[in-house]
Design goal:
Layout lengths: L1 E4 L10 E4 L9 E11 L1 H8 L15 E6 L4 E5 L8 E5 L3 E3 L6 H21 L7 E4 L5 H12 L4 E6 L2 H9 L4 E4 L5 H8 L5 E6 L3 H8 L2 E9 L13 H6 L3 E4 L12 H14 L7 E6 L3 H9 L6 E5 L3
Parallel strand pairs: 8-9, 8-11, 9-10, 11-12, 12-13, 14-15
Antiparallel strand pairs: 1-2, 3-4, 3-6, 3-15, 4-5, 5-7
Helix pairs in contact: 2-3, 2-8
Length: 318
């Protein structure tokens, strides 16, 4: 089968299309004929071995696929690696049935990005009706869904940040009350101004560095910043115990695999709610571009440039 393999760690240049043996499913696994592959920012970290879970070589990256089992069941699945291929093996517990009227784009958009937005707002930020919410990278995969969910769940004011006028316009089309430039020199003042001079209740942040520092400075008493990535590759400096006292601030981190350690089927509950919203036309995914499997390098280059909008896909049939 065709697959994208990494034999040395690095940037997009280490992604190579190769022929590999078809994987075999064990007793508690399922073999999936892959129709589409989701591309995530975590994949870029996996390829350079800077992810929370260490990578091992040789590596076929990719953690999410949608396709059909040999029994014909349509599923979307989370896997540790091996997604960038024509066939993939998943733990049966990590494969979730997809309604036929939910297309591949929406199925993959909900698996990681949608579930991440759901968990950030429900479990990390504990969003309450009427609270103000800042969504950084609001035109991205997680951000575009988080904007919609925040509005659907009663946020008082949703403030989006994005790097271009087109992305800011998209964020407002999705429900943001206001969209500001993510490259603003003083993000603290920018956010406060966008919120009518009031401090912010909730911030969803995957940027890191100065963006995180200045967002923390904009939080209201008992405000929460939910941190789920570091696209800038820069460590924030303001996450210090003494700074938490100034406004009774909560800084919370989220790595999606930890959700599976919670009692009950939290992940399944999140997906079911998200798929239900899609079927009712109340939630939509944004297509960020579809690439042939052999163009995985170009997909990673686009993602790392932070110039993408919405969900990127690979098509292993091309």
């Amino acid at each position: 089968m065709r697959a994208v393999q990494v034999t040395e760690f690095g940037g997009p240049e280490v992604l190579n299309l190769v022929e590999l043996p078809e994987p075999e499913a064990g007793a508690d696994e399922v073999l999936i004929d892959v129709d589409r592959i989701g591309v995530n920012y975590a994949d870029t970290h996996q390829a350079e071995n800077s992810y929370l879970a260490p990578s091992k070589l040789p590596l076929v990256p990719g953690g999410e696929v949608v396709g059909r089992t040999r029994q014909g069941k349509r599923v979307v699945a989370l896997i540790n690696s091996g997604g960038y291929a024509e066939k993939a093996v998943a733990d049966k517990r990590m494969a979730f049935e997809v309604p036929e009227n939910v297309d591949d784009l929406h199925a993959l958009s909900m698996l990681v990005q949608g579930a991440t937005a759901w968990v950030l707002l429900r479990k990390n930020a504990h969003l309450e009706p009427g609270e103000s919410v800042v969504v950084h990278a609001a035109a991205g995969g997680v951000g575009s869904i988080a904007v919609q969910l925040a509005k659907a769940w009663g946020a008082g004011r949703v403030i989006a940040t994005a790097s271009t006028p087109e992305k800011r316009e998209l964020a407002q089309e999705l429900g943001a009350d206001v969209a500001v430039d993510s490259n603003a020199e003083d993000m603290t003042e920018t956010l406060l101004s966008a919120n009518g001079g009031k401090r912010i209740d909730v911030v969803l942040d995957m940027v890191g560095g100065a963006t995180t520092d200045q967002s923390i400075a904009a939080l209201a008493p008992f405000g929460r910043l939910a941190f789920y990535g570091m696209a800038s590759r820069r460590q924030p400096k303001a996450v210090e115990l003494r700074n938490l006292l100034g406004h009774s601030t909560t800084i919370t981190g989220m790595w999606l695999p930890h959700v599976f350690r919670l009692p009950g089927n939290v992940f399944g509950t999140a997906l079911a709610e998200l798929f239900g919203l899609i079927e009712k036309g109340e939630l939509r995914a944004i297509a960020g571009g579809e690439y042939a499997l052999e163009d995985a390098r170009a997909a990673h280059e686009a993602l790392r440039s932070r110039g993408t909008v919405g969900k990127l896909l690979l098509d292993p049939r091309k």
